[in-house]
């Protein structure tokens, strides 16, 4: 089969997006979720979701380069990302690679369309940065597992239909060796999801409780007690995809801020210095993501270099939004205000959310440890 050239694909994507009338994204979280879910359905029906997934999984069978091109065009068109990114970018690639025929056939098409939203049940109150210390357990019971425990920082768990859940199935072996990866129906009896209000005012993070939840054995992804390797693949997919997508999103956000500042008045030296520092940070991220793109296109799988990407992205994201928010002054707390022409609601929210960048997807401390031990060969402390 002849694969469409990237140039032709970009032209086609740009043309479709120009006619698609992407939705405005509300600040209210519930309204935002509903709008973005409908938008994912629109993208799916037009064939723009799962571009690099295998055709057997319902995807487009194209290359990662095509996926990157569409992300670029989507952001450049100021169109929002679909709501189901945890499924599309994080969990889905692992199910596509390691799943059974039944799992891929039954779960992935509904993930692509947005009919099913997925959450990621990895972190726990005592096992966030040290994920391998997780204590949520799954005990075999006939054709099922009985799952009990708690997860936290589980984005969209209160809206999700499915959860990619790491559980301990063998407590007698070293901690990485006794972990399994379950695909859990969130409507199962015994699951309670409680949203947590963040400093942004949003409540998409949740704590989730599992009380003797019955999960069929056919929902085991890969082999029992071999979930750590699949979890590593999942986290690698998350970091690589997020870095490349966020690079474009941050670039466009900075362009938007400059346009707002330019429309207000002649910029002061303070404004120029802040924008200059943000631009320098962005150029660092551009340089880093050239390597990220090369690894993704080569399909090398997870590597310790993913942690370098994550650390650079953390720093750049927080730098860009801190520089913009710093120009708001005390008016950042006044709804609807536009100090220096900047939309305070947007930039204050972006700045607050950016503080989580060094935690989600693996904390900065853990990424530094991975770099130290696996890239630099330093001894364990």
UniProtKB/TrEMBL annotation:
A Pfam cross-reference name? Acyl-CoA_dh_1
SUPFAM superfamilies cross-referenced by the UniProt entry: Acyl-CoA dehydrogenase C-terminal domain-like, Acyl-CoA dehydrogenase NM domain-like
The Acyl-CoA oxidase/dehydrogenase middle domain extends over 119-213
GO MF term set? flavin adenine dinucleotide binding; oxidoreductase activity, acting on the CH-CH group of donors
Q: Where is the Acyl-CoA dehydrogenase/oxidase N-terminal domain?
A: 6-115
Q: Which GO terms describe its cellular component?
A: plasma membrane
Segments spanning the bilayer are none
Residue ranges occupied by any Acyl-CoA dehydrogenase/oxidase C-terminal domain in the UniProt entry: 225-376
Q: Which UniProt keywords apply?
A: FAD, Flavoprotein, Oxidoreductase
- Which domain of life does the protein's organism represent? Bacteria
The UniProt entry, under PANTHER family, shows: ACYL-COA DEHYDROGENASE, ACYL-COA DEHYDROGENASE FADE29
Give the family, as the similarity comment puts it. Answer: Belongs to the acyl-CoA dehydrogenase family.
**Which named protein is this?**
Alkylation response protein AidB-like acyl-CoA dehydrogenase
């Amino acid at each position: 089969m002849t694969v469409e050239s990237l140039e032709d694909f970009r032209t086609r994507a740009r043309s479709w997006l120009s006619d698609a009338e992407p939705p405005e994204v509300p600040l209210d979280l519930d309204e935002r979720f509903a709008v973005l879910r409908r938008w994912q359905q629109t993208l799916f029906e037009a064939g723009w979701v799962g571009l690099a997934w295998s055709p057997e999984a319902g995807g487009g069978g194209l290359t990662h380069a095509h996926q990157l091109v569409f992300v670029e065009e989507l952001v450049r068109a100021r169109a929002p990302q679909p709501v189901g990114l945890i499924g599309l970018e994080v969990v889905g690639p692992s199910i596509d690679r390691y799943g059974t025929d039944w799992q891929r056939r039954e779960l992935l098409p509904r993930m692509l369309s947005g009919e099913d939203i997925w959450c990621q049940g990895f972190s726990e109150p005592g096992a966030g940065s040290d994920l391998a210390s997780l204590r949520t357990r799954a005990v075999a019971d006939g054709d099922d597992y009985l799952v009990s425990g708690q997860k936290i920082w589980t984005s969209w768990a209160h809206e999700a239909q499915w959860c990619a859940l790491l559980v301990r199935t063998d407590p007698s072996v070293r901690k990485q060796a006794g972990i399994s990866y379950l695909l859990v129906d969130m409507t199962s009896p015994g699951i309670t999801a409680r949203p947590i209000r963040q400093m942004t005012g949003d409540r998409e993070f949740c704590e989730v409780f599992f009380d003797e939840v019955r999960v069929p054995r056919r929902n085991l992804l890969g082999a029992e007690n071999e979930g750590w390797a699949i979890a590593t693949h999942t986290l690698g997919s998350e970091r690589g995809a997020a870095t490349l997508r966020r690079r474009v999103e941050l670039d466009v956000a900075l362009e938007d801020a400059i346009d707002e500042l330019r429309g207000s008045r002649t910029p002061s030296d303070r404004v120029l210095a802040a924008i200059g520092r943000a631009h320098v940070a962005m150029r660092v991220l551009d340089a880093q993501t050239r390597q990220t793109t090369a690894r993704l296109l080569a399909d090398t799988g997870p590597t310790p270099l993913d942690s370098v990407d994550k650390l650079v992205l953390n720093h750049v994201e927080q730098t860009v939004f801190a520089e913009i928010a710093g120009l708001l002054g005390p008016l950042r707390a006044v709804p609807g205000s536009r100090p220096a022409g900047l939309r305070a609601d947007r930039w204050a929210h972006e700045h607050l959310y950016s503080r989580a960048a060094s935690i989600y997807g693996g904390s900065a401390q853990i990424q530094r440890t991975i770099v130290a031990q696996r890239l630099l060969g330093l001894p364990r402390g």
